[in-house]
Amino acid sequence: MIQAACESSVCVNALGISAFVHSVETGSFTAAAARMGVSKSATGKSVARLEERLGVRLLNRTTRSLSLTAEGQVYYPSCLKVLEELNAAESLLASRKRTVSGILRVNLPVSFGRLCAMPVLMAVAERNPDLDLDISFTDRRVDLVEEGIDLVVRLGDPGDQMTLVGRRIGTQHSVICASRAYLERRGRPATGDDLDHHDCLAFARDGRPLPWAVADQNGGSKPFVIRPRHTISHGEALRDAAINGLGLAYLSTWLAADDIRLGRLEVVPILTPPDDVPISAIWPRSRDLSPKVRVVVDALVAAFMPIPPWDQGIIRSGESPAA
């Protein structure tokens, strides 16, 4: 009976410490509960039980936010250390078991994630029956620590190197293209200046059309601000609009390659930058690379490196596809 009571107390304390740390990091019981996968009430009760056991108040609560009390500020660093030691112990056990298991929370870009990353992740899940995937899709830049995400795939700038660790898993290159019907009707632009006389389709992020990148005389890259006829915030919808003759689009080859090969899209002779944009797998620096993260990262690298499958058979830098 005494042993059972002790074990129960340890469990309650561990839950309380975890709920306390997540509440401080996220600023609310609601966000902490979402990260932990429990209810808001359970999170609040766990912190309250911890405070009751310690005999002090750790958090000031208002209807809008949480803040540390003086006692909470003293206690918080120790709780962080406890959780780090627990995570390290779990990672050690997992690597000794040499099994890939548990829940892996992954965030993917919407179109690239569905078209390119998901087939790889599904194959990994099939090979590892003890691995459970929790996958979200968004084109906004997520905060891995605050949102409780283990791994994110990013196109372009990988982000803050102080708090994140990354590995390049592929490259992205873009071309300017349109349907053959559109080009026969409006002509084929040869320079950036020609774009002023065409219907351009812009991709929007956070409500703002993104500029295109055109190669300069030295072979470098310069942003080219277009005057869009249509603005579309979904990559696949943007591609579909180009296929249906609505105008010129600046599309990544991973999105347009199949349609270029099949003749539904034609690359125009405006050179785009030869330097590739990195595609990266990112995880928090504060966490060890657990087996479940490593197996996914390794699978993505194997699938997309050294030459991504979408670029095979496509001559880049704005030229025509290979015969």
UniProtKB/TrEMBL annotation:
Any one GO MF annotation of this record: DNA-binding transcription factor activity
Endoplasmic reticulum keyword on record: no
Keywords for this protein: DNA-binding, Transcription, Transcription regulation
Keyword Thylakoid: no
Any Pfam family hit: LysR_substrate
InterPro entries named in the record: LysR-type_TF_proteobact-type (IPR058163), LysR_HTH_N (IPR000847), LysR_subst-bd (IPR005119), WH-like_DNA-bd_sf (IPR036388), WH_DNA-bd_sf (IPR036390)
The family this protein is said to belong to: Belongs to the LysR transcriptional regulatory family.
Name of the featured protein: LysR family transcriptional regulator
Organism: Telmatospirillum siberiense
